Amino acid sequence: MIHPDTELRLSNPQIGLGVFATRFIPKGTLTWVRDRLDQAFAPAAIAQLPSSYHDILLKYSFIDGRGHFVLCWDHARFVNHSCNPTCRSAGYDFEMAMRDIEPGEELTDDYGSLNLEWGFDCSCGLRACRRQVRPGDLLTYADDWDRIVAEPFKLIPTVPQPLWAFLDEKEPVEAALAGTTPIASVRRNYVDVAEILCGLPSLDR
Ligand SMILES: [Zn+2]
Asked: Residue 173 C-alpha to ligand 1 middle, in angstroms?
């Protein structure tokens, strides 16, 4: 579920739609939480779907740490990539604001953390642009991304959290906030996508 203070707008004609803040969203706010209305498809379930569904799933879903394709039910599925995104994940099923997000600013994510099926050339235009975003980026940059996430994570209890009620992982998050466990690394969300695609020849291009 995407944060309620967001809406769909045209990002630009090349990229299409994107998700934009309608109000100020402070750093440390949960901007997306995986909820029970999101659909998760195991590879075997995708193999059973008519192939006409496959392109839709590939375009709008991401692959979670269990190797399931997750299709968000709301406009979360339109969040675009940035190499310096406003939102990131740690090793949980939620994303949070890495910095204050102003009204009218686009919410973005790093697709390198979402178990991409294939890499793509990036033209986000930022100084931090990696030019190519690859399926292995999650492992390559995990230490950097874990470091970036640590500070906003600590702000979770200090800012309004309209999505907290939908979070299924309250206990591990609270334990990390209390310092009794480390913040889970984004590595926890990694799967070997090539292995998954091997079992789905109709998706393997
Ligand atoms: Zn880029």
From this structure: 30
